[in-house]
Amino acid sequence: MSSILETLSLILLLGFLAGQLARRLGAPALIGMILVGIVLGPAALNLLHTDVLTAAPTFRAVAVMVILMKAGLGLDRQKLAQQGTVALRLGVLPALCEMAVVAGVAMLLLGFDLRQGLLLGAIVAPESPAVIVPGMLRLKSLGWGVDKGISDAILSGSAISDVVVLLLFSLLMGAGGGFLAGLPPALGVSVQALLEIGGGLIVGYGLAWALVFLLVKQNWSQNRVQTTLVAAAVALGAVGLADRLPLADRLPLFSGYLAVMSAGFFLIERDAPLARQLRGGFDVLWQVAEIFLFVLLGASVQLGVLQSSLGVGLVILAVGTLIGRGIGWYLSTLGSNWTLSERLFLLPGNSAKATVQAAIGALPLSAGVAGGETMLAIAVLSILITAPLGAWAIPTFAPKLLQKGEVDPTKVLLQPRVVLLAPVDISSVTPYVLQKTAELARRADAEVIVLHVQDVPDAKVVATLEAQVKQYLADIRYRFIVTAGPITQAILDTAALYNVTEIILGKHGQRGLKRVLMGSVCQSILETSTRPVLIVEEPRS
């Protein structure tokens, strides 16, 4: 067994490499991360330190906080208002219908009583923010379904759904005592749900106000890293506070996770520049958090418990999703402006399970509930099947089922690939072109295409230019290309071939005919190019 430091390095390095390998093979990165977790975990090589495995719920809480803040920062109030009650219905009906259908099938096939069946339904029904949130934000950045706010409805609905189902799970496990114990179960759950959802929205607004006050009005941070760390610390504090208030064990006053998501949403309304800055920061945090989340998720998988429940588990998952969720999706979108294909997208877009199942799947077994081992096996099965399937299906079916609209850059983090084109020759303006290109590339973390056009091959000229390029672009990823043909057409063709973002042209400080010819190239590019063109003039002596 590894030390704690070795375990953390194994998780980060192998999780990252496995995710990249899975992505290169055309599969979601989380598949590779989960498989690495299984291999490193107790089910196989047992290389992970027990203290890290014990701390897995803490790592998971951090990862869920990050992904829910990302979700809140990506919501669009106008699109949600446009959909009316669709988001709210998506937060209640699909999960409750799936829970009821799973309970019925479990009672029929496994001999469970009503409480056992509903417990299994409450474990299986929640949606995974770790899969759904990145998928929906990616669709928003590409414009799929944005005109009708489909991604926003799914994002907000999944957050509400998890709160409601977890409340029911707590009641079924006997945790719904305290001040609400004397109420009828249905009324008690309703009151608790209203408290947690309403309290979460109120606390989320307070968090947004505090972050704007500290980071904008009081200017406590000097850069994006500090801003992100402060926001993450405040969000984590809210998640922890929700369970540690004096009355939290008897009367939960708010949902910490919903508070985090709503804080991101309110930040957009209160200070859009701060929200944009935090999108980039939390996007970086998620790249680390997702590795820990899915590797440790894989490490928690017990392969042995899957064998006896594999067949019946597949049946329960299929019936629960296709029939239970199908009914819920139909009722949720009834009367909306969603087309049939957009409603069908809910199957791949709103079915993935991972995070909540990993958190609560083993609780009935730990509490000695009859059938708890089977519940854990089906929870693990739901993760292994629906998480990778959902991560693959969301980007695969979105172009087939959704309409593409105009992207709102104020609501999503756009990270386009920036490529600069710098045509050069052996003249004295070339160093200034390369210097300006290098400056722009460092600011935008861009790639550079350096183009030299010559009709007669001249190895000496090429070698001289290569030396200059290497000198000015030493810390920048670049490609040096030599081609022939008319200069203007060669520049335009190269810009189109590499889909460059901007062309940086040098204007010579020459006199006479040479100045006329070189000036005509610049003028021609300016008149015909559909891409931005920056003219760099040689300083006059």
Task: From the structure above, extract its key features.
541 residues, mainly alpha, five-stranded parallel β-sheet, 25 helices, 5 strands, 6% strand
Task: Give structural notes.
By secondary structure, the protein is mostly helical. 67% of the residues lie in helices and 6% in strands. It has 25 helices and five strands. A five-stranded parallel β-sheet has the order 3-2-1-4-5, sandwiched between helices. The longest helix is centred in the middle third of the chain and has 33 residues, at 185-217. The model is unreliable at 511-518 (pLDDT under 50).
Report a brief summary of the structure.
The chain is mostly helical. 67% of the residues lie in helices and 6% in strands.
Total helical segments: 25
Largest sheet: 5 strands, parallel
Mean pLDDT: 84
Number of E strands: 5
**How would you classify the helix and strand content by structural class?**
mainly alpha
Instruction: Please write the string of helix (H) and strand (E) elements.
Output: HHHHHHHHHHHHHHHHHHHHHEHEHEHEHE
Low-pLDDT sequence parts: 511-518
Radius of gyration: 28 Å
Share of helix among residues?
Answer: 55-70%
Distance between the termini: 70 Å
Question: What is the topology, as strand order, of the major beta sheet?
Answer: 3-2-1-4-5
Strand content: 5-15%
Judging from the principal axes of the Cα atoms, what is the shape? elongated
Oligomerization state of this entry? single chain
